From TrEMBL, chains A, B:
A motif (Histidine triad motif) lies at residues 93-97. This is HIT family protein. SUPFAM superfamilies: HIT-like (SSF54197). It comes from Roseateles koreensis. InterPro entries: HIT-like (IPR011146), HIT-like_sf (IPR036265), HIT_Hint (IPR026026). Residues 42-108 form the HIT domain.
Amino acid sequence: MTLSHAACPLCRDSGGRLVVQTPLWRVVRVEDDANFPAFYRLIWQDHVAEFSTLTPAERTVCMEAVAAIERVLLAQLRPTKVNLASLGNVVPHLHWHVIARFEWDSHFPNPIWGARQREVSGEAAARLAVPLTELDQHVIAALAGVHA
Amino acid sequence: MTLSHAACPLCRDSGGRLVVQTPLWRVVRVEDDANFPAFYRLIWQDHVAEFSTLTPAERTVCMEAVAAIERVLLAQLRPTKVNLASLGNVVPHLHWHVIARFEWDSHFPNPIWGARQREVSGEAAARLAVPLTELDQHVIAALAGVHA
């Protein structure tokens, strides 16, 4: 799927709350959906659509960063599962969703794009073991240790 | 999320039509959903839940295989987009979905787990540029060139 650089929202905007970036990628926290507060997105800085377009070395850089975010979520939040996805049907600019999922969350065990399973009383963010701003700091620290 | 090896469907069964395997992973074609015929799954042979549990070298092996499958889908089918995902909420045994998506498919641009967008007349598989058994052969050939 083609989408020009000029028309691409991920070339124009950050795509979320900027957490940390390098010349190759940036990591943002996604604040679009209060049901899933522990939701980061790694966005490849270059406007490429498909993961396999990257060189092998770039793919390793990309996925080691994704894995570092996942490890932070696992260590800090003890989620039921972490979900990883690179879809890009709407915005074909390479980005990886990294989402902590919990048995109590609104859609579990469905994907976040699937059918809602339950109503969650109160704010989902308040149920997390650490505040989101603190979680961001752990992500920054973890990504500082990743080659890029 | 914990699930014992003994109770794990991906330890007991292939998880789809077996296409090719190595000691580290196997690739199956998923035949559960006729809406998405060009759908492969790379299943890590060991019973691990999370991608970040792998060693860096294993992650590279895993994602180079995923990228090889993606390249076959792009080259043979010219899909609108390829979708990659490792979710595992129901079966927390590491597996990667690799799915060719088309503007005409039943759910596009939604994720395959989202809301249906349209009815597709006839078999989706019949719209593909090559038959699925031929596509499998291209996947086998591509994965033969991937380390491990």
